[in-house]
Design goal:
heterodimer; A: 657 residues; alpha/beta; 5-stranded mixed beta sheet; 22 helices; 40% helix; globular; B: 260 residues; 6-stranded mixed beta sheet; 4-stranded antiparallel beta sheet; 10 helices
Chain lengths: 657, 260
């Protein structure tokens, strides 16, 4: 206790489990804020020593209920302080916390509850209690259920159901009677023990429990903190599901390593308001959240007065010209620099404030492709928005974008201590201390995904560009090869095309062919507007799609994409040589898209085989008639004589050796 | 159930109310017991809302007697009613549309504020402390009805279903003993109705508030109320628990028409 702070802090090697990290913070900086939650309209704060006390009490309480080394604890609920503490409490006892997605229905939870043989479940409220009660019969291992919020649970009389308050009270007595218990339990922990089990989403087959050690998450957290220089005085808003690997890394692992403050919003609906109040310095959101925010800003600006609107547009243009470069520390002319500084005071600063992003030092996005315009917008108004790459099996820690070297279409460079290589088929393989120990009870799956050399097979295809940045292009199984042997990643090209507002869907062909050709669907709204502004008359989609002017517009987009592709030696051969604009929109009702609006490539290729042939045989036009199904179930025919155009392609720019 | 239905808290005896020649209520008697949920049903124009208006003093009946917690009165007046713990919501929402939810709720506590106008204007010492205490109470209601996300939104910008919930919150902010709800679920969709039912039951169960409600949705009424009184053309035609009322031939006739 009385040891000099410097001496203990530097002894990082002994801080190799999360409970040890927590106790260290409590000892060294016990008065600093560790966690906040908005309750009854007021932000309540717990400092590190309070958190340590609560966690210790919870661990003792769990021990009283018979929770032992190696047992598994389910955690179900929104981001609540006590649910985060439960993770650490379980880890103190050498148990394994298993967070579940709180919005899953009861039947979806059964699989995880059974697979992980959950012994005790800590849940947030009545809603979750009801769900677990529904499936309790199917989970014989489940012995106790604890709830955080007692509201509505007064009349529940089940003896295995306990309020967290009672358990904490019980734990405090236990802690008083056996004051050495917690320290002894923490001393038993090893860094290679499994610290958490996170379940994969199971889009392909049954979910798998990914067992991660303390070492893996602490390494990943330290690496991220080092790259982004995260400090202990930061704030993060924790609102993404606790069962998601990213939240565990940001709100648990990094928070415990760096010692910054975790803020829990009042409820899911108040996140934006809470964000404005907290002003986090560290923030994560999926691309769609950033997109919604931008749309809201734009709509509100439309309603603003003329002077405000003019100012907004003027300074946004300045920001677009030089904002991202200033953020990256690149040279920018003195005039632009001054204008940007002025804009920062008048427009950009207030805008960041409205978005709750005034204090942001690093914001991350991941999970889906983010459009270049969207990405540039946030960077140009001075928000350091970055992307990362990783998956549950790698603690969401493979690649990070370093400050000053941001490219919107790459996920950055391999993070410290991570080794990344590309397999012959284009698949990304990674190795490092952040890899999973194993899939729980699935040695077959473990053996399949980690090879003899210790590389984990991500299932994603990608490549390194000339500057060593990793680009993700597709799922590995979707990647094909051109007849000439070059790698062909249809999704990568299609995404690039779809970033243009005029293009709604694109389908690229090229596997086993000598060149890449594409079907295009125009975006009726965007292209319709464009046509109206030019006084171009049209009767409907088929008519508009066939206009030579529209073909010209799309051709420009495709040639821009070709120019971009030519910059990368890896994909330079997959420039789009020929294209046509389809006479009808691809539609889930016609089975051309899935219900989640993903193109069913092989079905489309088969249905429009005539058009594909026409593309590859060099014809200038092709007649096609297609049966379409209307919403009321009737069918009709749409026929058209489709033009086929050649797009300009560019010579590949050779990679500097 | 932990909730114990207690003694009669409100007793209405032989109430008659006329507007000129129109008899809105004629000779109606019923009682409300502590902690119960009491429903008033009846076809349009049966006198349900008039009944509530008599209870909280908006209308003064020509005949009859109101006994509230042992005090006999010929009629109520609105101020006494509110001050002695009767709160209500209205069929057509009665909130300050331009004010935020929070301000509306604070206004709902105005009878409980003890400081005078000048003290509040200066917002110093006692007045500040008083306001903080009231705010804490209001926040409990906000938490209870799950309206945190609209705390600072002007009421006029909210959708109808939420406005109804805010109105319930405003009534609850006064910490009433009896809550009069005039068609709390009118115009709501199924999901909003379910939420509202849950809130009404929670209020009754956890705060012990006695509830008198008017509602047209028979499913809801039969589900949540302890006793039901049925009015038709200003007369009482049925009174009892939901099962009794459902099988009362006069009630069936009034609602479905008799078989000839």
């Amino acid at each position: 206790m009385a040891a000099a702070p410097e001496a203990s802090m530097s002894d990082a090697s002994s801080l190799d489990t999360f409970p040890r990290l927590l106790m260290q913070h409590a000892r060294m900086r016990g008065h600093c804020p560790a966690m906040r939650e908005k309750d009854l309209g007021i932000w309540q704060t717990w400092n590190w020593s309070q958190v340590a006390d609560e966690v210790a009490a919870m661990a003792c309480g769990l021990a009283e209920l018979g929770f032992k080394r190696g047992d598994r604890l389910a955690i179900v609920g929104d981001n609540r302080p006590r649910l985060y503490w439960a993770m650490c409490a379980a880890q103190i006892l050498g148990g394994i916390p298993v967070p579940l997605y709180q919005d899953a229905v009861a039947q979806e939870m059964v699989f995880v509850l059974q697979d992980a043989e959950i012994k005790i479940a800590i849940v947030e409220d009545q809603e979750q209690v009801d769900k677990l009660l529904e499936v309790r019969g199917q989970c014989p291992a489940l012995q106790h259920m604890l709830y955080d919020d007692p509201r509505g649970l007064r009349h529940y009389t089940q003896t295995f159901l306990h309020g967290l308050d009672e358990v904490l009270a019980m734990g405090r007595i236990h802690n008083k009677n056996q004051p050495d218990f917690i320290a002894e339990e923490i001393a038993k922990g090893r860094t290679d023990d499994v610290s958490i089990m996170l379940y994969t989403s199971g889009t392909t087959g049954k979910p798998k429990g990914v067992c991660q050690s303390h070492r893996a998450f602490i390494t990943a957290a330290r690496g991220g903190i080092e790259v982004d220089r995260l400090a202990s005085d930061g704030d993060i808003l924790s609102y993404l599901p606790m069962a998601w690997v990213g939240d565990h890394l940001f709100s648990y692992a990094q928070a415990l390593v760096a010692g910054f403050t975790v803020n829990c919003p009042e409820s899911g609906e108040t996140v934006m308001i809470d964000m404005r109040e907290i002003g986090p310095s560290y923030y994560f959101a999926p691309p769609r959240v950033f997109e919604n925010l931008l749309t809201q800003v734009m709509i509100r600006m439309e309603d603003a007065g003329r002077i405000k609107r003019a100012m907004f547009h003027y300074f946004m243009a300045v920001a677009k010209r030089c904002g991202a470069e200033i953020l990256d520390g690149k040279p920018v002319g003195i005039k632009d620099r001054l204008l940007y500084a002025l804009g920062n005071v008048l427009v950009l600063g207030p805008l960041r404030n409205v978005l709750g992003m005034s204090r942001i030092r690093v914001a991350y996005t991941a999970g889906a492709a983010i459009g270049p315009d969207l990405f540039r917008f946030y960077r140009s108004i001075g928000i350091n928005l970055k992307q990362f790459y990783g998956q549950t099996e790698t603690c969401a820690y493979v690649c990070l974008q370093p400050d000053g070297g941001i490219k919107f279409d790459s996920v950055g460079k391999p993070a410290p201590q991570v080794e990344v290589k590309i397999a012959d088929n284009g698949e990304i393989l990674v190795k490092g201390p952040m890899l999973l120990n194993e899939y729980y009870k699935r040695p077959d799956a473990t053996a399949e995904s980690i090879d003899a050399e210790g590389f984990f097979h991500t299932g994603d295809a990608g490549f390194f560009d000339a500057e060593g940045h990793l680009k993700i292009i597709d799922r590995a199984k979707d990647v094909g090869k051109l007849a000439g042997g070059a790698m062909f990643a249809p999704n990568y090209i299609e995404n690039k095309l779809k970033f243009f507002p005029h293009i709604k869907e694109a389908v690229c062909f090229g596997h086993d062919r000598n060149m890449v050709c594409a079907f295009i669907n125009i975006d009726m709204g965007a292209v319709g507007n464009w046509a109206e502004r030019r006084g171009l008359a049209y009767s409907g989609y088929t008519d508009l799609a066939a206009k030579p002017e529209v073909y010209g517009l799309i051709q420009e987009c495709i040639e821009q994409v070709n120019a971009e592709l030519a910059n990368d030696a890896m994909v330079a051969d997959t420039q789009v040589h020929r294209f046509l604009i389809l006479h009808k929109e691809l539609d889930p009702d016609d089975d051309e898209l899935t219900r989640t609006r993903k193109v069913r490539r092989s079905f489309v290729a088969e249905k429009y085989a005539v058009l594909v042939d026409a593309l590859y045989t060099g014809k200038a036009s092709q007649f096609i008639e297609t049966l379409v199904r209307f919403e009321d179930g009737r069918t009709g025919k749409v026929g058209a004589d489709l033009q086929i155009r050649d797009a300009k392609t560019f010579a590949a720019i050779e990679r500097a050796a | 159930m932990a909730r114990q239905i207690g003694d009669v808290i409100l007793d209405l005896k032989n109430i008659s109310l006329r507007f000129g020649g129109v008899k809105a209520l004629s000779d109606i008697s019923f009682d409300v017991r502590e902690h119960e949920i009491r429903a008033i049903i009846g076809p349009n124009g049966a006198g349900k809302s008039s009944m509530l208006n008599v209870i909280n003093g908006v209308y003064r009946p020509q005949e009859g007697e109101i006994v509230f917690r042992g005090e006999h009165r010929h009629d109520m007046n609105t101020h006494t009613a509110a001050a002695s713990g009767i709160a209500r919501t209205f069929q057509n929402i009665a909130l300050f549309k331009g004010m935020t939810v929070l301000d509306n709720l604070m206004a709902g506590r105005n009878l409980k504020m003890k400081c005078n106008f000048i003290q509040h204007a200066l917002w110093w010492g006692k007045a500040a402390r008083e306001e903080l205490a009231h705010r804490a109470k209001v926040e409990e209601v906000i938490d209870f009805l799950e309206i945190e996300h609209i705390r600072k939104t002007p009421v006029g910008r909210l959708p109808y279903g939420l406005q109804k919930r805010v109105e319930l919150a405003r009534a609850l902010a006064a910490e009433p003993q009896i809550l009069l709800l005039d068609e709390p679920m009118a115009g709501m969709n199924v999901e909003e109705k379910q939420d509202m039912c849950r809130f009404i039951l929670d209020v009754n169960d956890q705060m012990g508030t006695t509830i008198v409600l008017i509602e047209h949705d028979m499913g809801v009424v039969m589900d949540i109320s302890d006793r039901v009184v049925v009015l038709d053309y200003g007369r009482k035609i049925g009174d009892g628990d939901p099962e009794q009322v459902k099988n009362n031939p006069e009630v069936i006739a009034a609602y479905l028409g008799t078989q000839h």
